[in-house]
Amino acid sequence: MDRAQKEKVVEELGQIFESSGVVVVAHYAGMTVAQMQDLRAKMREVGGSVRVAKNTLAKIALEGKPCASMGQLLTGMTVLTYSEDPVAAAKVADAYAKANDKFVILGGAMGDTALDPAGVKVVAQMPSREELIASIVGCIGAPASNIAGAIGAPASNIAGILKTLEEREAA
């Protein structure tokens, strides 16, 4: 790899570190090509990506970034999993690490916060962006349906009482 290619890789990695909601660093020694393809496919499903890069280039790309403390994790055969969604990459990486003992999570970063393996696990347990949006929409919609039910309830109660009185008179 010549100098121009290295500079391009450093620039791409810098963009990843700046724009990603979460970056997870893991060892992948001993994984087969099929297992890596499976990991990439699972990350693509949630809008994330997987990147293998030289540790020295990744450390250069981390210089001056908020997550620069993550550089100490970059030793050995490392892979970066990342996504714009602050939870998606951590969820996939955590689930994949449980299923494959050769994929070992070292830590990561969420914005300017460095994460250890336990921190990645905690982030993975958080609800995703879509789940949060759905719960917020549910909270917003619930009062409206409750109001509609409360408005309609007296009328249905009166109708029930009138029907009961009518049945008594008929009997």
TrEMBL record:
GO terms for molecular function: large ribosomal subunit rRNA binding; structural constituent of ribosome. Keywords: Ribonucleoprotein, Ribosomal protein, RNA-binding, rRNA-binding. Gene3D superfamilies: 3.30.70.1730, 6.10.250.290. GO terms for cellular component: large ribosomal subunit. It holds the Pfam family Ribosomal_L10. GO terms for biological process: translation. Coiled coil: none annotated. Belongs to the universal ribosomal protein uL10 family. HAMAP family: Ribosomal_uL10. Forms part of the ribosomal stalk, playing a central role in the interaction of the ribosome with GTP-bound translation factors. This is Large ribosomal subunit protein uL10. It comes from Paenirhodobacter populi. The gene is rplJ.
